[in-house]
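Reading group handout, session on sequence-to-structure problems. Before we discuss, look at one worked example. The prompt was deliberately terse, the way you'd type it at a terminal:

> structure Tripartite tricarboxylate transporter TctB family protein

The input record follows.
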Amino acid sequence: MSSIPDKAVQAMTDDRDENGVADTDAPPHHGAQLVFAVASFGFALFLAANIPWQTEWAKRLDVVRQPAFWPTVAITAMAGFGALELWFCLRRNRERSADGTLGEVRRWLGAAEYVGWFMVYVWLVPQTGYFPTTLVFTGALTLRLGYRSPATLAAALLTGATTVVVFKSFLGVRIPGGAIYEFLPPALRNFMILYL
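And the output record:
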């Protein structure tokens, strides 16, 4: 027996379209999803086309133990699901308006900015050192995200310093010392290379 009152059930079933689908069943579709569907399906096709050059089938091995088997399964599934997503997106776009597509795509591409930040960070660590680079980048990203209060900036810098200490000192992750450390006095240079 349902715990939902009959009036509530009736209200939920009244707003269904001609296919019996309510707005709560299928959230509104955005036209930019078509851009994502095309890109992901295209990438799956690119990967599928490169399987013969990136993997190999070894002689005298069971099928599931072949180096190429699981990548082939994964890429085939990716292409199949990508094709389904593309088909559904094309169908939905015919039925609904695709307003705001460019704005949404622009917003997605805005995330690439942070990939750029990370690439610059990775490039700078061997030059300027893990500790100073991490502190500069946590502070800069905090400001970039719009946080301006001294408490928030201090929390970001503390988080960056804690991350460096945990990874380098406690976990013993080997991260190359910065070239700038060569200009420090020998005792401080060794400390920075080993612990920061």
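Points for discussion. First: The longest helix spans residues 69-95. Second: Residues 30-99 form one domain.
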